[in-house]
What does this fold into?
Amino acid sequence: MQDQLFDSLTEEQLRSRNTIKWNYFAPDVLPLWVAEMDYPTAPAVRDGVRRCVENEEFGYPPFTEDTLPRATADWCRQRYDWQVRPDWVRVVPDVLKGMEVVVNFLTRPESPVVLPVPAYMPFFDVLQVTGRQRIEIPMVRQDSGR
It folds into this structure.
């Protein structure tokens, strides 16, 4: 991500939006959710949504079982020159299920797992549900604010 994009958003701009994230809580609460809904939408995504609206395509798309894994493998190859086989890719419904799958795959029950804090609160639950020991590592704030 470019610093100028990150630094160009102000709290005032964000709170002026009609969203739960920025208007549900008291002004002294800074909502830092997992989803990055605050940044501009990628042009390719906007164009795709416009095409769906113009064609009135609001139902579920006819994806086959390997559509997303193939697209992910292609993206990894094009972006990073990684050779990822589509059968290595697992589709999960959300970030929490993804974290649970990874924690279960990479660690054994009762293993310590590092969690940088502050963190998205449901991450704490994932570690409890999977039976892992949580090791909190506080983030260090630098003069730059990062």
